[in-house]
């Protein structure tokens, strides 16, 4: 059974890497199709290099655009490749436009779809990612749910139980596989002149936050208040979408906040693991902080990662500056003895085993 791994953005490359490693280890027939949704070196190629992933066999180079432009170009390009390669299954990961296009092109070509990180729900249809994940789940044949909670979400939407497999999240595999490598190969604290547990780390890039001037300003005002109250330097590796919007809206970056270019996974992971606290609107970062036992303050009104709230590693504060500051105070005063709800770091192995077993049964 030939596997087509479709990916296109930073988090997909990182979270698919454990599955790709397993395909290599077990000698499975597979190829990577990159849509080209992310193309800047530090959002794309750096991860292939650091994680030692084989180059994509195809890159569609779709680049940036509106949702329809990106998704439409991807659909056309993916369909062509699938027609030629005739894989037995397409694997997609997460909730980006690449995931929607990959799943849709495959199901329409009568090719089975496996959705890694299935069943996440924010129940907020303002998020493009919520639409993508719901649609991808409903056309999938294999739904690799990271947690029991994600499985319950799928069952509530009448998805057949026999299609759902609780595997843990592949981000745990990626964190465990790369933390030690990061210690050996990079020293971002030295590079940025920081001491462990004496700085805050920020990431924010969600469309519904940074494309709205008032919300982006709320986040920056929040960071200013947090710096004035707690006095920790704040490092912000800034996503190109956010960088563009800060400039376009004419907003000031507050004192105490250092904007830097996006980092590779090894440096970012090290920066995250040593941070006193992280403020973010990223999905993956909410999970990683939970795994790394670093307190997280989420700059959103909802989350599709409620497990982090339940175990107490994360708090939702939205974009109001006072709420952000209160959230920081609350998380700094908390014990960090929570349990990681995202699995044991063997999700990649489980996913490939499930695929191998089901291929044997259908032969
Ligand atoms: C996308 C995903 C989001 C994910 C994020 C990961 C969708 C709908 N959104 O958001 O779920 O969390 O990736 O980082 O799929 N740009 C560059 N270089 C690049 C890519 C983008 O400069 O390599 C800039 C362009 O100005 C572009 C903007 O970033 O217009 C947004 O890119 P896009 O891929 O549309 O969405 P992301 O915000 O990256
Ligand atoms: N990340 C990175 N460099 C950075 C910022 C984030 O390598 O400068 C990694 C981070 O460790 C996580 C992933 O990117 O694994 C999260 O991606 P992002 O926040 O872009 O997307 P989301 O998870 O919100 O979809």
Compile the SSE list and pairings.
Layout: E1 3-7, H1 10-25, E2 30-34, H2 45-50, E3 58-59, H3 67-85, E4 89-93, H4 97-108, E5 112-116, H5 128-138, E6 142-145, H6 148-156, E7 164-166, H7 170-185, H8 188-192, E8 200-203, H9 207-210, H10 213-230, E9 234-237, H11 240-248, E10 257-260, H12 265-273, E11 277-280, H13 283-292, E12 296-298, H14 306-311, E13 314-316, H15 321-332, H16 347-362
Helix pairs in contact: 1-7, 1-16, 3-4, 4-5, 7-12, 10-15
The structure holds uridine-diphosphate-N-acetylglucosamine (UD1) and uridine-5'-diphosphate.
Residues 10-11, 14, 203, 205, 237, 262-265, 268-269, 282-285, 288 line the site of uridine-5'-diphosphate.
Q: Are any ligands bound, and if so which?
A: uridine-diphosphate-N-acetylglucosamine, uridine-5'-diphosphate
Helix content: 40-55%
Structural class: alpha/beta
Biggest pleated-sheet summary: 7 strands, parallel
Question: Based on DSSP secondary structure assignment, what is the total number of beta strands?
Answer: 13
